[in-house]
Amino acid sequence: MEGLVGGENTDGASRCVSGTTGRKTLPRIFAQELRGMMYGFGDAVRPSKAAVDMMEEILLDHLFNLVSKTTEVAHIRKRDRPDITDVKFVIRRDRRRTQRVRYLLQMKASIDGATSMKELAMVAGEEVPGAPPKV
């Protein structure tokens, strides 16, 4: 996290999340992805810098609040570090987000399982489906 605090972006501009006190200046780290997402959701091919900055401000504020609440829940549960159960607890009333987190965790488990099976097959010297043939 050290790289996210108190830095500058490639344009030389730094920013601070508004509406908060005590937060450090954060670099613009999501601008490129936000431009693509904004275009995908119907904005111009090159959205204005002000629009991208505003979206990033909203995103950073939301992430900061989510992480703060998650960390607070972890401390209440007498743990030093938050884990996925704390995130699930914080978003428990938002059905859509809860379902999305559940889906992403299932996909992660599926990918991890497939990766480990592929590694086991490679160690055993077996053919791996979808892998290029050995020459």
From TrEMBL:
<dbReference type="GO" id="GO:0046982">
    <property type="term" value="F:protein heterodimerization activity"/>
</dbReference>
<dbReference type="InterPro" id="IPR003195">
    <property type="entry name" value="TFIID_TAF13"/>
</dbReference>
<keyword id="KW-0805">Transcription regulation</keyword>
<protein>
    <recommendedName>
        <fullName>Transcription initiation factor TFIID subunit 13</fullName>
    </recommendedName>
</protein>
<dbReference type="GO" id="GO:0006366">
    <property type="term" value="P:transcription by RNA polymerase II"/>
</dbReference>
<dbReference type="InterPro" id="IPR009072">
    <property type="entry name" value="Histone-fold"/>
</dbReference>
<dbReference type="Pfam" id="PF02269">
    <property type="entry name" value="TFIID-18kDa"/>
</dbReference>
<keyword id="KW-0539">Nucleus</keyword>
<dbReference type="GO" id="GO:0005634">
    <property type="term" value="C:nucleus"/>
</dbReference>
<keyword id="KW-0396">Initiation factor</keyword>
<keyword id="KW-0804">Transcription</keyword>
<keyword id="KW-0648">Protein biosynthesis</keyword>
<comment type="similarity">
    <text>Belongs to the TAF13 family.</text>
</comment>
<dbReference type="GO" id="GO:0003743">
    <property type="term" value="F:translation initiation factor activity"/>
</dbReference>
